[in-house]
């Protein structure tokens, strides 16, 4: 049975490898749920500009093939690509900012020739590098890297509250739940609230699906 979730629960507790039927129940979700969510948030002209609007099944196919949660993949794509409408989304069919480093986002972003291939390929890379035991970037920051963060973010590091929260997060990522949004935030994104922004989209999507089920859709 589907139940509402909080943003904090999604950020700190939700394993990004969770299969949607195990999370949302009732047989999981369908491509129509993704497309309906886009319909609810985009005007008709904007839907035409969304490069993955007609490719929602690929998010579910990717979950089956790669083992990365489809709702996370979908909401991460929305967040990074401005609902599939960004320059990189159109120019390179890259919806998750993979390779788009801060100092050269367009040049660094991986390019793909087909939408479905992009959705599956980036998911496979994120699963292999970030969401697996022994993945290249699956281990939280070392103390050396933590010290570097302090030196390069002095304003943030001057707050005892920030430091305390960061150390608590590192402990959760290292010893409790390493494959969550807050842990991925350490390695994948440079923005401190990246995990919360995606979690808010995931929460909205869950609530949307619960509403659809309540109306027999």
Task: Describe the structure concisely.
With 217 residues, this protein is an all-alpha fold.
- Number of individual domains: 2
**Largest sheet, strands/sense/barrel:** none
Proportion of residues in β-strands: under 5%
Strand-pairing-aware structural class: mainly alpha
Q: What general outline do the C-alpha atoms trace?
A: globular
Could you walk me through the main structural features you see in this protein, from its secondary elements to its overall organization?
With 217 residues, the chain is mainly alpha-helical. It has 2 domains: 168 residues, Lysozyme; 38 residues, no CATH class. The protein has 14 helices and no strands. Helix 1 crosses helix 14, helix 5 packs parallel to helix 9 and helix 6 crosses helix 14. The longest helix is centred in the C-terminal third of the chain and has 21 residues. The radius of gyration is 17 Å and the shape is globular. 35% of the residues are buried. The mean pLDDT is 87.
Summarize the topology.
Blueprint: H1 7-13, H2 20-24, H3 31-41, H4 44-49, H5 57-66, H6 70-81, H7 87-92, H8 105-108, H9 115-130, H10 143-152, H11 154-157, H12 160-176, H13 181-188, H14 194-214
Helix pairs in contact: 1-14, 5-6, 5-9, 6-14, 13-14
């Amino acid at each position: 049975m589907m139940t509402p979730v909080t943003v904090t629960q999604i950020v700190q507790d939700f394993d990004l490898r969770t299969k949607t039927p195990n999370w949302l129940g009732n047989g999981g979700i369908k491509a129509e749920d993704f497309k309906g969510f886009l319909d609810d948030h985009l005007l008709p002209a904007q839907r035409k500009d969304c490069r993955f609007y007609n490719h929602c099944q690929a998010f579910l196919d990717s979950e089956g093939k790669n083992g990365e949660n489809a709702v996370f993949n979908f909401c991460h794509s929305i967040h990074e690509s401005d609902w599939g409408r960004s320059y990189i989304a159109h120019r390179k069919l890259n919806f998750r900012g993979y390779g788009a480093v801060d100092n050269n986002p367009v040049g660094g972003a991986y390019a793909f020739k087909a939408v479905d291939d992009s959705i599956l390929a980036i998911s496979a890379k994120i699963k292999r590098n970030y969401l697996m035991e022994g993945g290249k970037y699956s281990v939280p920051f070392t103390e050396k890297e933590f010290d570097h963060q302090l030196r390069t973010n002095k304003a943030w590091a001057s707050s005892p509250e920030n430091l305390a929260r960061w150390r608590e997060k590192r402990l959760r990522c290292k010893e409790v739940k390493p494959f969550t949004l807050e842990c991925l935030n350490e390695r994948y994104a440079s923005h401190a609230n990246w995990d919360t922004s995606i979690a808010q989209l995931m929460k909205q999507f869950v609530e949307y699906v619960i509403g659809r089920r309540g109306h027999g859709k």
